[in-house]
Amino acid sequence: MEEDFTIIAKRAKTASKKMAVLSTELKNKALINIAQNILQNQSEIFEANSRDLNEAKTLVEKGELNRSAYNRLKLDENKMRDMIQGIKDIVSLDDPIGRILLKRELDAGLVLTKTSCPIGVLGIIFEARPDVITQVSALAIKSSNAVILKGGKESINTNKMIMSVIKDALDNTEGFPKDVLNQIFTREDVAEMLKQDKYIDLIIPRGGNKLVKFIKENTKIPVLGHADGICHIFVDESADLDKAKNIIIDSKTQYPSACNSVETVLIHKDFKFKNELTESLKDAGIEIILSPESWHIEYGEKKLSLKTVNSLEDAVEHINEYSSGHTESIITENEDSAKIFINSVDSSGVYHNVSTRFADGFRYGFGAEVGISTNKTHARGPVGLEGLTIYKYSIEGNGHIVKDYAEGKKQFHHKDIKV
Amino acid sequence: MEEDFTIIAKRAKTASKKMAVLSTELKNKALINIAQNILQNQSEIFEANSRDLNEAKTLVEKGELNRSAYNRLKLDENKMRDMIQGIKDIVSLDDPIGRILLKRELDAGLVLTKTSCPIGVLGIIFEARPDVITQVSALAIKSSNAVILKGGKESINTNKMIMSVIKDALDNTEGFPKDVLNQIFTREDVAEMLKQDKYIDLIIPRGGNKLVKFIKENTKIPVLGHADGICHIFVDESADLDKAKNIIIDSKTQYPSACNSVETVLIHKDFKFKNELTESLKDAGIEIILSPESWHIEYGEKKLSLKTVNSLEDAVEHINEYSSGHTESIITENEDSAKIFINSVDSSGVYHNVSTRFADGFRYGFGAEVGISTNKTHARGPVGLEGLTIYKYSIEGNGHIVKDYAEGKKQFHHKDIKV
User: Fold this and answer.
1) Per the domain annotation, does A347 fall within a domain?
2) Which of A139, A142, B202, B314 has its CA 20 to 30 A from that of A400?
3) Domain limits at B293?
4) Structurally, how many domains does chain A consist of?
5) In terms of CA atoms, which chain A residue is nearest residue B17?
6) Is residue B292 included in any domain, yes or no?
7) A415 in B contact zone (CB under 8 Å)
8) So what's the ipTM on this one?
9) Does the beta-carbon distance from B401 to A376 stay under 8 Å?
10) pLDDT for the residue numbered B205
């Protein structure tokens, strides 16, 4: 450990209290400064990245790192431009903090207000994509949260350089509190972080399902995210063949390793074009697996499990049993079947005649995506800035006491005030 | 164990899927049937309660149960009437399920809808108040959740009788699914329940802080509630003496064992009427404790800790360090101080010139209260029916695929649709 973790966590908590009262203007100014500083220090960041890439290349040659991880690690001009644009995009989003969610006069002169506020301290753990660090830092700043970041060890030089450029920009933003962004580097630090439920309010893992599962099993802090992405498409009796073909091929091949790719296709026994459909899937390079052992599998490549079901009800039952609760789609021309499917399937996204790949914060128009959650509390599905907020209740009064209401001397009248 | 717990949990999960599609009419009909059946079976319930009271009396005599627990256990005509009225009140609340929270056209013919839906299976653990069982069952039904209930062992006969009366009513409600309400009885069952994060989505403990702490430390399932209730009042330099007196006396004496009672009073060093204030608190029968060791204490009786602070900032810092995050109040005639206090204190309720005892779902006008949460995610403060819901996203399309958008053939236009 480079530093006792509790000190970092306490410092982040203290910083989070200062963040809670920051103006939108100051937060946006800080974000613009970060974007500018990254632009001005591109060459240093590329240089740090090339050091990481050199080490990673050796690992790839030894077979200790796969090619796709290497590619995710690599920063190029395009990724750098996207990183900078991503920060600017967050500047233009509405401030999620200080929104009045409810205003209610409880009685004369006694006004209740529910206002959105930051969660506090976020613990964010991500794998080999160094561009996550700017995105996550920008989201934390915009939502007035402090953050403790742990990046992948393969990108340590890039992460350190980007963080130093970001911190530089914040130091030069007058009035911006210290210690809002904190970085940790070791697995031991992560283990410590997962124990700090007194100081850390939410953990967001951004990475593969092994990482997410490990974190979920090793902390009492709420975790926002998803481990598996076992998405289903159900081809109903009355499905249109072309729609079924196009949607399944898009859902499987457009980006096979994405969490919202389809893994299992269920086909109604009375669907008349089963053979045509499977032939066209094979033509699209998709391998079809026909065994019950496959229903738990997230392939992440151009393979899918296929199963014939007797009815819509059987399809719903299969999905509610085997799905990871991420995203499912029904292909049908029957509106009633679509309605039953949408109401009965217990997943964060339930679609009709649409590719599962639409499950994404940007496609939903959230302007930013914190991650995709399969949780049943707090935030579900693609999570935007709002998922990094909670609310508090304030009451303004003039000496009001409960005794008067308990004894019937006064009565609540509960009149909502328009805001 | 009377039955393997996993079987109960799975059964509840299955029932929860059926609950998710129930109509408001059927849920309300079930609630009305429950209210009527309790009315018709009052004498059996009183009889079961008197058996519990007989056993409890022996425990009180032996010193193994305190008097207030005995009183909470006792059902009388008033409590029975309140129980029945409580169910009827929940009938009249708006259905929290199926509310459209967002409707957005992503592109022509591609419509995203965010709809409120039930969480799934709730695990509810409560102590010796048998009237909780009807309230919790009614809230679960109205919010389309299945529930597993564990009541206090002292009220086992009353709980079993009430549950049998409720189940009878549900069996006679045509179309109402089986196994929505499930009861467990032993500590071993509770231990099992806390492990079932696959089937149980939210745990709600209703009881003292020992119970809540034990549960929070022994489960990975989200827990809605609060352990401690260490509430503060800060008497600012410019506080009005009468308001300070009345509010502190109300906050401490109106119901000293309530979680929203004040435990620590902070007084600004320049407040001119400190002596008058402390004298009037003593006259109201409040014992004043002046030691740093007391700042962590929840008295639950007519005692409070008193501390002089140098400034508003010091008061905020003390509160953010020692508070349980429940409810705090500032007494001041200075609007700026009030604003800073409300924005800087990180608690679920932050008040100005108001008793802390207002922190309550009924007083807030929620119509029902699930509990009070000090969590920083999902639900905070007094939680109404909405806290038992989450949402899902559905998309209706007509063969839409992501490839068209990724390749720039089509663009999202993200137009919100009024609902």
Assistant:
1) yes
2) B314
3) 231-358
4) 2
5) A344
6) yes
7) no
8) 0.95
9) no
10) 94
